[in-house]
Amino acid sequence: MHIHLFFDLLSYAIGAFFSWKIFNPKQHLINNEKLRYLYYTVVIIGAFIGAIALGTLNTYFSLENKSIIGKSILGAIVGGVVIVEIFKKIMGIQGSTGAYFVPSLAFGIALGRIGCFLSGLEDYTYGIETDSFWGYDFGDGIARHPVQLYESAIMILFFLYVLWRYFQDRDYFEKYIFYQFILVYATQRFIWEFLKPYETIVWNLNIFQLFCIALILYALYHLKPLTDY
Predict the structure, then answer these.
(1) What pTM was estimated for this model as a whole?
(2) Average pLDDT score, the chain
(3) Which of 61, 145, 189, 200 is most buried as measured by Cβ atoms within 10 A of its Cβ?
């Protein structure tokens, strides 16, 4: 089994454990069971389409081989958010419905990025060349920023924050933790993208950074009530 696939499966399994056993999804905002499972189906479809679409779009802009099909966790998040917001609008659902996905997302991304790091150059998630002492040689004699580990570290810290928030204030957790996750993930991802060798599209920003900006604005809009919390 490929190391990346192993870490992906491990992150899915542990993430599912956190979401289903510890953060009981039956406390979900959507009380109707059939509607809740339809919601889960919609999330999976949106995340899958987004992951493939944005990942492939980036490989098209950044690699010589334009036929490679990519996948991206950022794309999965974007796809999930877009399709869920449409679903909520159609069904008349108000408020955040993503809180109980956050623990598995944060921990899963942290673990998955370790898999990306161990996959080396073939994964195409490494950083640009650096003279820093922590630069890592993936086997071609060039020390690069281990951006996969940067992202992993941020997500581990955020996961610990999620745990604290869950046990500290359940109401706050359910209302705001998903949007805080979006804000933190998109912001740190926007920064790390400057350390990656991807082609820029406009304003010296790559395709991922443009979508990060959209997610940041989305999160800030939904976090406005926090000023009065």
Answers:
(1) 0.88
(2) 84
(3) 189
